[in-house]
Amino acid sequence: MKKSLTILLFALGSGLIVQAGPGAPGKIRISITPGTQVETSFDLAYLTDNVSEKSTTESVRLRRGVAMAPIVRSLGTGSQIVYIWRTPFLVSQGETLEVTVNVAGKENLFKPVTAKIKGKSDKASLPGFIDSIYRYQLEITTKEAMDAWLEKNSRLLEEAMQAAGANADDRAVLLAYASYMKLARRLPVVKHQPELAKDANFSKWLFGDFEISNPHFSRLADDNVVPNITRFWWEGRKLAEPDLREEFLFVDLIRFAKSERLKQETAYNWVIMELKHKKFTPALKNVYPMLRQNLKPSARTKNIDSLYQAYSIMDRGKPAYNFVMKDASGKVVRLSDYKGKMIVMDFWADWCKGCIANLPEFKKIAGAYKDSADIVFLTIAWQDQGTEDLWKELSTKHNVAGPNNMILMRNEDSKEYQRFFDGYKITGVPRYIAIDKEGNWLCNQLSYPMTAMAEQIRNLYDEQKYE
């Protein structure tokens, strides 16, 4: 068994000869075989001791016939899984990973790795071994078959780690990596057996030895793996607790995860998506202090702080930017002209099919308030230069033409245009917002679809009416 495992470990990779042996603590040394026959590049991803940051990723360019000096990089302390040419390798504390990129002849371009044993060279290929044994199997569609398959692979991994001489730190990193792979393989089974999610022991079975609190997730250098870990955990929790609100799930992860890299990346991506799709929300406002308390200072937290401050100008009750634009008749209109009225705005564009499809529905909602003097509905078209005639044509066709129909011409050189976009954060259309009677933010992103929006506008109007 040991001999067959060693052969399998050495057969993994893509154009690399790997030798891991004693040397300077935490280093990678990459030698490029002279006589390169191709013009290509490969990525190198590794971790330093600054675990709160993203991994270091470099793109190394290979030029035909050009000799290159060896590439040497220092790593952080402890074992970690680095990635070279999209192939994972384990590097232990006190070792140097000796890598040879061999594309000197045509026969080497697509051949599997050939490796010479030196020290513990087979240990370096253990992450690739994990990838190979946990490769997705389409034919496994039942819990029983998946359990048997995973148990068999767990035995293979244990034997491989023993055969390669993996130390305790190596094992912790490898088992963390394997636990994420196993979770990824269990999830599809639930699609074939949805009744599994109703079982009292579902969470225990689904997650198995996977723990979101595993600190060794910080030792995986591929920045594509970290969001996948979060995504699979997220999917599993939602299957187990379908009524769990997203912000509560997010708070759980930030509070309980011990991998700083995982927390940093998840927090940044969550904030980005929240702002992109929902703008400045009560959920973000409530969660932000918790982020500041639970994340270490880093480039990511600086980005989060910057985004939060930029979008917080749209928090309910804060003054909305007093825009200046022209209505359909050419008259200059300002937000302040509507003081004393609740304002509902529909941002649309001629190139946005969804926007145009919703114009009649928006007009219908506005029609319900035609006898109310304390609310106004504005349609604002975000148009390219030279499309004014098209805007007028579409406005007439969809029955929104008139004094409350305006146009915002795209003009990156205009200071007013830039101030408008900074003030309202128009990152896409359609976009629907509400401003209160005093010119303050009421809702920076109204609900969708239009039926839900109509109800929300009614509730906001009733609030304004009795204030």
Automatic annotation (TrEMBL):
The lineage of its organism: Bacteria, Pseudomonadati, Bacteroidota, Chitinophagia, Chitinophagales. Residues 1-20 form the signal peptide. Residues 314-466 form the Thioredoxin domain. It holds the Pfam family AhpC-TSA. It comes from Chitinophaga pollutisoli. The keyword Signal applies. InterPro entries: AhpC/TSA, Thioredoxin-like_sf, Thioredoxin_domain, Thioredoxin_ResA/DsbE_sf. This is TlpA disulfide reductase family protein. Keywords: Signal. SUPFAM superfamilies: Thioredoxin-like.
